Amino acid sequence: MSELRNLPNIGENNEEQLNMVGIHTYDDLAGIGSCEAWLRIKAIDSSACLNRLMALEGAIQKIRWHDLSDSDKNKLKDFYNSNK
What we know:
mainly alpha; DNA polymerase, domain 1
């Protein structure tokens, strides 16, 4: 198991896709942020959804995405809706 899969919300599929877009470590993910990581994944997987975006942010914050603040969830929803 790699470093990414140790993060909350990151399973085998998410880890594989993150690796495919050049993200291999927590520092890589945190450095580019959830929105940019999601855009990169969306470029290779058109099914990338809002839950995936929230999962990435939760992984960065090291919490389950359900526990993100309402403010963070709203910002991510706005970003998602402007980039569908």
